[in-house]
Amino acid sequence: MTITEKLEIGVAPRRIEDVYADLLQDKQRVIVDVRNRDDFARWRVDGRSSLQIVNIPYFDFIEEEDESVAQVPAADEVLVVCAKEGSSQYVAEILQERGINATYLAEGILSWGGLYDTRTVVDAPFGKVIQVARPARGDLSFVVISEGQAAIVDPLRHIDNYLQVVHDERATLTHIFDTHAHADHISGGPALAAETGAAYFLHPYDAIHPLDMLPATLPYNYLADGQTFQVGQFTVKVIWFPGHTLGQVNYLFTAPTGQTYLFTGDGIFLRSFGRPDLGGRGEAWTPILYASLYERLPQHVNDDTLILPAHFSTLDESAEDGIFAASYGQVKEQNEALKPRTLAEFTEYVLGNLPTFPKEYVEIKRVNAGLIQPDEELASELELGKNICALADA
Amino acid sequence: MSVTFDELLDVKGAKCPMPLVKSRKAVNNLGVGQVLKVVATDRGSVADFQGWAKTAKNIELVAQEEGADNGDTVYVHYLRRTK
Ligand SMILES: [Fe+2]
Ligand SMILES: [Fe+2]
């Protein structure tokens, strides 16, 4: 047996920003993930449904080079991914030697996990809406700018990304709006408030941990249904939208032109909606969610309202531009989960499509209520992989 | 834990994939039934050696343990050549 130790072939690493652009444009068609099977099962790079991603551990290449190379799908270019970088470079060099055009991901899977992607959704005379996504988690958050004032909706844990946007826009952060107490990720809201002095808002129902029944120990401002704010030229209205959590709200931003933008959090997503069971009371909360979706929501939106959710499940929900937003009219058409149902049908549909309940989610809610303070290692471990906030595909 | 071993491989400081590449070569030089002790500092080696031993054709992972070496955590793997 010959074992490759060091080849004299230069294979170029690729930056995650470039890989992500190619994933959105469907140009990166094949990924070979060479981590061990358990790590691969826990999380991986996600693309459009057309992406072929195969797991062939690097030690398989060491044991059986021919067989392993034969398992690599044919493509113009193959991206090799590992934990940190070394093994993917090693495998990419083997593939290159075999005549396969291979590159590898710089800094490995961690660079995917840490990727934040900032894009402008709306750029109008009255203001801007900027989407800040963390693609590995399917998490979306937003900065709204108008007349030098900034509001942030559902900020994620790495707050520098928001401070950068606010700084680049020469704005002052005044409002930090969480749509609800998140279970899948650690909110950046309290840290941003501490850093900037801006007010952090949360509905009081969500300031009680639903399983521990303990009140939040971090400072926040109470939200009430129907409450309004002014952010530059935008009028912001709080719409109570219980079901996913008891205290979830949607924020309706109205521009002077009458155009409306609805930040839905884990209310409606572009192709699904937020599951009602993460508080441990799925059956009790399902009718509440039904009323929010079918009775409350239509009172506040029209077909032109732009829906801006806190999550996506697949890159297929975005066009090549990487923006995850659509008009309410469009969402109604393409979102199977939202089709008209009676309460009985809805209940059956919801309870029949609940995905697994990740055990970390109970702990993450404790963090978001200030009940525990994780160090960086625990925080990143709690946030590994993709969110499971949506109902499963029927 | 005291596992008896026949050869010692020090891969402290080596990053993935080198601990495993070097271990493979060292196992090839063992006699059947002999045990190699591998000392690594790469934390990822723990799960990787487990996954590797599951599919590798002549390797049994006898034991794994954690220790300290000059303030660094070391990950120790004992590999037996089975055929
Ligand atoms: Fe949520
Ligand atoms: Fe969520």
Question: What can you see in these coordinates?
Answer:
The complex is a heterodimer of chains A (394) and B (83). With 394 residues, chain A is of the alpha/beta class. Chain A folds into 2 domains: 3-112, 3-Layer(aba) Sandwich (Oxidized Rhodanese, domain 1); 116-382, 4-Layer Sandwich (Metallo-beta-lactamase, Chain A). Helices cover 28% and strands 22% of the residues of chain A. Chain A contains 13 helices and 18 strands. Chain A has a 7-stranded mixed β-sheet with strand order 6-7-8-9-10-11-12. Chain A has a 6-stranded mixed β-sheet with strand order 13-14-15-16-17-18. A 5-stranded parallel β-sheet of chain A has the order 1-5-4-2-3. The radius of gyration of chain A is 22 Å and the shape is globular. The mean pLDDT of chain A is 94. Chain B has 83 residues and is α+β, with helices and mostly antiparallel strands. Chain B has one domain: 2-Layer Sandwich (Translation Initiation Factor IF3). Chain B contains 2 helices and 4 strands, in the order E-H-E-H-E-E. Chain B has helices spanning 18-28, 45-55; strands at residues 7-11, 35-40, 59-69, 72-81. Chain B is globular, with a radius of gyration of 12 Å. The model of chain B has no long low-confidence stretch (mean pLDDT 94). One fe (ii) ion binds at residues 182, 184, 266, 310-311, 387, 389 of chain A.
Q: Do you know the CATH topology of the largest domain in chain A? A: Metallo-beta-lactamase, Chain A
Sheet/helix structural class of chain A: alpha/beta
Major sheet of chain B: order of its strands? Answer: 1-2-4-3
Portion in strands of chain B: 35-45%
Helical fraction of chain A: 25-40%
CATH H-level superfamily title of the largest domain in chain A? Ribonuclease Z/Hydroxyacylglutathione hydrolase-like
Overall pLDDT metric of chain B: 94
Bound molecules: fe (ii) ion
Shape by Cα distribution of chain A: globular
Low-confidence stretches of chain B: none
How far from one another are the termini of chain A?
49 Å
CATH class group of chain B = Alpha Beta
Measured distance between first and last alpha carbons of chain B: 25 Å
Using the coordinates above, name the CATH class of the largest domain in chain A: Alpha Beta
Per CATH, the architecture of chain B is 2-Layer Sandwich
Largest β sheet strand count, sense and barrel closure of chain B:
4 strands, mixed
Could you tell me the CATH topology label of chain B.
Translation Initiation Factor IF3
